[in-house]
Fold:
Amino acid sequence: MFLPQNEFTLFVILGLASFRLTRLIVFDKIMEPLRRPFFKEIEEKNEKGEVEIFLLPKEKGLPGLFGQLLSCFWCVGVWGSLFLVFLHLQHWFIGDLFVLILAVAALGAIIEVIISKIMDI
Structure:
């Protein structure tokens, strides 16, 4: 176990990891193939005549349940946090490594957004 023992620092690292895991599951394109079976695509034309695609959770059964879960940032955040805390409490090297990688990626993403906003000014 190599994550810090300081409770506040550990809390911040787990929080950043949870944020990144949640965004990865709910929004990132790389996870789209795993989300696709739980959603139906709706195509609509906007005022400019362009086709827009909306994803709606399937309505019935297990796909509907997982579709509802995957469309809810807050829900995925709770379950993802539970998973990450469980990994950490097991004192597995690979679990802490996973948490640390997600936390570093989250911090990098946050810095990138801040820099992008500053550069747009």
In short: The radius of gyration is 18 Å. Residues 7-110 form one domain. The first helix runs from residue 7 to 26.
